[in-house]
Amino acid sequence: MIWLTWRQSRTQLIAVFGLVAAACAWLAVTGPALARLARRNDDVYDLLTSNDRLLFNGGIAVLAVAPAVIGIFWGAPLVARELEAGTYRLAWNQSVTRGRWLTVKLGFAVLATAAAVGILAAAITWWARPLDGVTGTQHGSLASRLTPISFAMRGIVPVGYAVFALLLATLVGLVLRRSLPAMAVALAIYVFIQIAVPLWVRPHLVPASSTTTVISRATLDGIGLDESGTITITTHVAPGAWILSNRTVDANGGAVSLPSWFSQCLPPPPTTGQAGDGAVVQDPGKGTLDACLARLTREGYRQQLVYQPRQHFWPLQLAETGLYLGASGVLAALSFWWTRRRLT
Amino acid sequence: MSAIVRARRLGKRYRRRWALQSCTLEIPAGRVTGLVGPNGAGKTTLLHLMVGILTPSVGTIEVCGGRPAADSSQLAKVGFVAQDTPTYAGLTVADHLRLGAHLNPRWDAPAARRRIDRLGLDPHHKAGHLSGGQRAQLALTLGLAKRPELLILDEPVASLDPLARREFLQVLMEAVAEDEISVLLSSHVVSDLERVCDHLVVLTDSQVRVSGDVDQLLTTHHRLSGPHREPSTLPADQHVVWSSHTDRQSTYVVRTESPVLDPSWSVTALGLEDLVLAYLDETAAEVPASPGLEVLR
């Protein structure tokens, strides 16, 4: 059975590991240059051209879909193609039970996918180390590795995603008995889960930290003005943190909008023509700003931050990987049940 | 006669539709049995139940003394060549033989190799590029090299041209003679079965209409034709299988152990095909059609 599985997935194996090798080679070539850059200057960000930044963010986005692509393209046809082509009638009548047939097929696919994505994720984690969360002097920054997109392509979670995508696609393929619709449906479910988890689940996997600070020039990150004319304030937190909420509270600790006098109090923004489009106004002029912020503080306004500090990176990685692997286990059990009980 | 397949009140339901219902039958061991029935009679469902691809909704089935596909030793006892003879299109002929060798403990590699050589199949040829006849031969080779006690074939020659059909059946018969295995093959074409089968089971609406030794079936069935006669006037030991009447004439197909002596009948022997057709044409069996309707037919 192992031989047959290997023989059937030989082409896929070569293609997937070929692409992984190519990606690793590219990372290996560009990685040392990044590391050199990082050693020479703390503000790597300011040395990077906008092209570099585009490449960095684009690369991260592309690589973030790798687990899904590998998992779904491997999983959907795994059983569905046998059902489509009718070859299950050949396979199930060799002297190998259906359960063992599926065990070997799934086991092989899980190991191959996990290995491919594991290698890729390790390479990217190593490569992006000097860049993750780098802050420039202009307050701009690259995504820290805790922000959702980077988080998804660092450490060990990609392996969890890939295994989950694989087993999801296998099960959908089993139920639909067609490879292509299975890919589409599995992808839709996967994308939904990938959006839902960072929004609603990940923030609570490890208890978030919370702090309340006085709003002053030292803590102020920016003052924003949205289309409806509402002014919002954001403040700094320890670098590398994943900020879940950043809001102004009054003396009683309830979330409020800023008092109406605040907008009159503010000095005009130093750069012209950009304030009205909702962009963060950076480094407002001195003088009266201090007075405005002091008055806010006097009236009891504080800034409350809820965030996952950078130290939570590994606990979050472990918790989320566990979550996905647990779900994968359930999907695998369902696949076995379906193969034994429903495909009859 | 020991049975290699025993089914009792076997039924298979897909959601609300019954594909096979209360089917009771026995297939004798050591014979080549033909399973005949019209399309939709439940032949494929029955065969899939025998090899364990399907599990029964009701009733029991026993093949080679065990529950189909219960474990790998049970699977090893039964060979199966499925309808349209599926093979892995991307794998070569040699790959298929390796597949069989890896997955079957009783695999007969030299015999499989010999058979492929004799068929003139190129081992490096992809199965997807083989002709229908060659693919069927490859599937048969896989089924035989497994050294099963019972080889089941589902409409193996349905999609083959007459020449490939003859070749396939010839190879099958040679193999049966060599290996002394029991064979069960289904078909809706009786002439294919006539050449190879020594036992016959006729299945309509998942009911076994007749089951027996081919020679014996042929000697106990007769076509009687003569002046018009009601079925009730026939001797008690003559079972009417099929009848057709006009105002003046009656034609019957009857089953009887004793010779037909009535001089008013002209008695002719039946070929296997006519015999099967007589059983499949249910409308004429019990109630003789009225003369008016008979003209329309």
What does this protein look like?
The complex is a heterodimer of chains A (344) and B (297). Helices cover 61% and strands 9% of the residues of chain A. Chain A has 13 helices and 5 strands. In chain A, helix 7 (98-128) packs antiparallel against helix 9 (157-176) and helix 7 (98-128) runs antiparallel to helix 13 (313-342). Chain A folds into 2 domains: 2-205 and 312-342; 209-310, no CATH class. Chain A is mainly alpha-helical and 344 residues long. The relative contact order of chain A is 0.13. Mean pLDDT of chain A is 83; it is low at 272-280. Chain B has 297 residues and is of the alpha/beta class. Chain B has 2 domains: 3-205, 3-Layer(aba) Sandwich (Rossmann fold), CATH 3.40.50.300; 216-296, no CATH class. Chain B has 10 helices and 13 strands. In chain B, the strands form 3 sheets. Chain B has a 6-stranded mixed sheet, sandwiched between helices. In chain B, a hairpin with a 2-residue loop joins strand 8 and strand 9 (207-213). Chain B is elongated, with a radius of gyration of 22 Å. Residues 285-297 of chain B have low confidence and may be disordered. Chains A and B meet through helix 1 and helix 6 of A and helix 2, strand 5 and helix 3 of B.
Q: What topology emerges from the helices and strands here?
A:
The complex is a heterodimer of chains A (344) and B (297).
Chain A: H1 2-8, H2 10-40, H3 44-47, H4 50-64, H5 66-85, H6 88-91, H7 98-128, H8 148-151, H9 157-176, H10 179-205, E1 209-213, E2 220-225, E3 231-235, E4 242-249, H11 261-265, H12 288-298, E5 302-308, H13 313-342
Antiparallel strand pairs in A: 1-5, 2-3, 4-5
Helix pairs in contact in A: 2-7, 5-7, 5-9, 5-10, 7-9, 7-13, 9-10, 9-13
Chain B: E1 3-14, E2 17-28, E3 32-36, H1 43-51, E4 58-63, H2 72-77, E5 78-81, H3 93-103, H4 109-119, H5 132-145, E6 150-154, H6 162-179, E7 182-187, H7 190-196, E8 199-204, E9 207-213, H8 214-220, E10 221-227, E11 239-245, E12 249-255, E13 266-269, H9 272-280, H10 291-296
Parallel strand pairs in B: 3-7, 3-8, 5-6, 6-7
Antiparallel strand pairs in B: 1-2, 1-4, 8-9, 10-12, 10-13, 11-12
Helix pairs in contact in B: 4-5, 5-6
